[in-house]
């Protein structure tokens, strides 16, 4: 749902995120906060995204990318707005989340949004109706922009999308947030523990109900990264419960095992796989034509379903060029690697597992961007920078712990 006069960029979360950037810049200009004192690696990743998209944007408007159309220029404008919204979430989250109480507050709201999406997915999966249509009717001043896919058949099952754009996005975002949900269930003193674990279980259900290879890959990557940074007893419990969860899914969802097995063992005869691989020669020709800046942000147009690039890295190489691709790799991988490094060096178990949860979610996003064009999906696009900002907060918490330990060690040596 978008505000008609703004167009495709006029969604509620996009508008609010851009307003956040305005407030952040104004508070900096008026001296209400000092952003240089709260630096973290996620900012550098956001800066690289800005450089990659802005360089292609300038090339498009300067005519270096070939002829441009009014529609193409509007698409590039939307991408620049998207970058502004992403930067806002990275900057504001990193600056405002300063204590563990702040982390828990943000995690509660973020996971509440995921919980709502999962409840919508449960209704879609069990009853075959889409509650999001009711919400659309209650949004005066907005119009339906189209393009979303609430239901999609795969094998014997009907894939659902929850409140996201597509079932693949639903699965990947759920996999990204799964480690954070486990972390919250272990460390949040507020609320009922059973409810925290119910939210976690629904994220697992979301990955399963979509029967998405991308979602299963994301969940596997997320758990592989996160589990080693969990406290010892919960780590053993998760490793013991995980096989039981898989068996329960097989037994409770009719046709799940057959459909999932068919999806995971598919070869080049599967249309979803052959479409991806058949695009490689065409992508290489397009890169050869405009190697450095591409055709412009958001300017790649798929003429039919067979030309959709279900790979964010390939999409970036075509649309924003090799310079933009390099910047995108930094944007998607650098926060994950720095969060994992933070988890390895943090001293307290809550901060260690928080950094591990952020690193796990970000690594899942980076890996799954190979299997779908992630930044074309609105929920993924704004959830990812939130996790980047949260990983920056974990980095700062770990840094303060290290400084406190060093100061305490220095004081004890001085007293001796």
From TrEMBL:
Query: Which keywords accompany this UniProt record?
Result: Ligase, Membrane, Transmembrane, Transmembrane helix
What does the record say about its membrane topology?
Answer: Multi-pass membrane protein
Q: Which GO terms describe its molecular function?
A: ligase activity
Cellular compartment(s): Membrane
Q: Where is the O-antigen ligase-related domain?
A: 201-329
Spans traversing the lipid bilayer: 12-32, 44-64, 79-97, 109-129, 165-186, 238-260, 313-334
Q: Which InterPro entries match?
A: O-antigen_ligase-rel_domated (IPR007016), WaaL-like (IPR051533)
In the UniProt record, does the keyword Ribonucleoprotein occur?
Answer: no
Among PANTHER family, the record links this protein to: LIPOPOLYSACCHARIDE BIOSYNTHESIS PROTEIN PA4999-RELATED, TEICHURONIC ACID BIOSYNTHESIS PROTEIN TUAE
Protein name, please?
A: O-antigen ligase family protein
Taxonomic source organism:
Microbacterium pullorum
């Amino acid at each position: 749902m978008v505000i008609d006069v703004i167009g495709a960029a006029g969604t509620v979360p996009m508008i609010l995120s851009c307003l956040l950037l305005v407030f952040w810049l104004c508070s900096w200009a008026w001296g209400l906060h000092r952003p240089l004192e709260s630096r973290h690696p996620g900012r550098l990743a956001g800066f690289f995204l800005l450089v990659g998209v802005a360089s292609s944007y300038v090339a498009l408007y300067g005519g270096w990318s070939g002829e441009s159309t009014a529609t193409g220029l509007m698409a590039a404008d939307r991408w620049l707005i998207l970058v502004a919204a992403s930067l806002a979430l990275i900057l504001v989250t990193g600056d405002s989340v300063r204590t563990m109480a702040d982390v828990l507050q943000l995690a509660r709201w973020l996971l509440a949004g995921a919980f709502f999406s999962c409840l919508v997915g449960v209704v879609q999966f069990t009853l075959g109706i889409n509650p999001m249509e009711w919400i659309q009717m209650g949004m005066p001043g907005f119009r339906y922009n189209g393009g979303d896919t609430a239901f999609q058949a795969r094998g014997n099952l009907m894939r659902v999308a929850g409140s996201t754009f597509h079932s693949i996005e639903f699965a990947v975002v759920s996999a990204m947030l799964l480690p954070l949900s486990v972390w919250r269930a272990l460390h949040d003193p507020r609320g009922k523990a059973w409810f925290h674990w119910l939210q976690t279980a629904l994220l697992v259900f979301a990955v399963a109900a979509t029967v998405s290879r991308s979602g299963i890959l994301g969940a596997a990557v997320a758990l592989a990264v996160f589990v080693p940074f969990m406290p010892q007893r919960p780590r053993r419990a998760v490793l013991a419960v995980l096989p039981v969860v898989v068996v329960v899914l097989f037994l409770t969802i009719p046709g799940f095992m057959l459909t999932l097995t068919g999806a995971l063992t598919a070869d080049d005869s599967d249309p979803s796989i052959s479409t991806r691989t058949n695009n490689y020669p065409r992508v290489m020709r397009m890169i050869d034509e405009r190697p450095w800046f591409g055709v412009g942000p958001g300017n790649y147009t798929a003429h039919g379903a067979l030309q959709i690039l279900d790979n964010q890295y390939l999409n970036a190489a075509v649309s924003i060029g090799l310079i933009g691709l390099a910047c995108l790799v930094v944007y998607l991988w650098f926060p994950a690697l720095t969060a994992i490094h933070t988890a390895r060096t943090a001293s307290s178990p809550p901060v260690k597992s928080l950094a591990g949860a952020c690193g796990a979610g970000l690594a899942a996003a980076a890996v799954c961007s190979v299997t779908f064009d992630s930044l074309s999906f609105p929920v993924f696009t704004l959830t990812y920078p939130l996790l980047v900002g949260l990983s920056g907060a974990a980095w700062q918490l770990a840094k303060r712990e290290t400084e406190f330990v060093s100061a305490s060690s220095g004081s004890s040596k001085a007293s001796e």
